[in-house]
Amino acid sequence: QVEPPRNQGALLNGHGSVWVARDHVAQNIRHHLWQLLICHQDIPDVLRGRLNHDAAADSALREVKALHLVVDPCAALPQPLWPWIRKRHPKAWIWARDAIYGDRMVRALPLTFEALGPQYLRAAYATQNAIPEYARLREEVPYFISTWDDHDFGLNDGGGDLPWRDASQEVFLAAMDLSVPSGQHGVYTKTRVPVEGGSVLVVALDLRYHKSPYTNVDGDFLGEAQWAWLAETLKTVKEDAVVIVSSLQLLDERYGLGERWGRFPAARLRLLNVLELCKRPLLVVSGDVHMAELS
Description:
The protein is α/β, with parallel strands linked by helices. It has 10 helices and 11 strands. A hairpin with a 2-residue loop joins strand 7 and strand 8. The protein is globular, with a radius of gyration of 18 Å. The chain starts with 15 loop residues before the first strand and ends with a strand.
């Protein structure tokens, strides 16, 4: 089974979370799944210790020589890590959420943000893209994959009711040098990334363009067009493994009114059912919370 140890949490260096879907697969595929996201030089002792009883996983961790995919689910200035990341020579860089902040907090209680608009977003991306080490990474990395969340979409907890969401999409696509099919509403993409011994399909979801207000408990994140695209993508996968990029956590329910798939229970259950369509090993990587764990 491709899964972390049951009932065990393990801290990693960074943000976000990783979920490894259960599946009966060959041991070499399991090995490559662990290789995707973890660099052996930086595995904390707590993670090593909790995986020691799992010989296959521990062996895979110890043998990893380089990162294949690097996922960053939140960024703010200053950004001193780009040289460190470049030294790992990743096969792919994945923006999982909030590459920049296009809003500002105006009140802490109740938490209130002010949207700063498309022109501010454009300027913020220009500032980030001018960081020399980040620019070099973008030139060097073979696969540059991006999706957004609320702050780089334009407003904290924002969604389909943002009046200028189309302008925000235009700015995002240009800043990330990202292409989507003509007429697509949303920045969701799929990218095939070759890795040693096979390939991985990275599916980056858009949880913002079609997001319902949280006052609607029966709301949705994806919109019907994206749901249909995701189902078809997972049913026809030819790659050896799949990485789903979700800007919000899928499994964790600890955060009260914080953003997560559980805010829309029907949509969360629908996603879990759609993931079952995939016949390949599957990882879900998520961001939002400023911590990291294996779930």
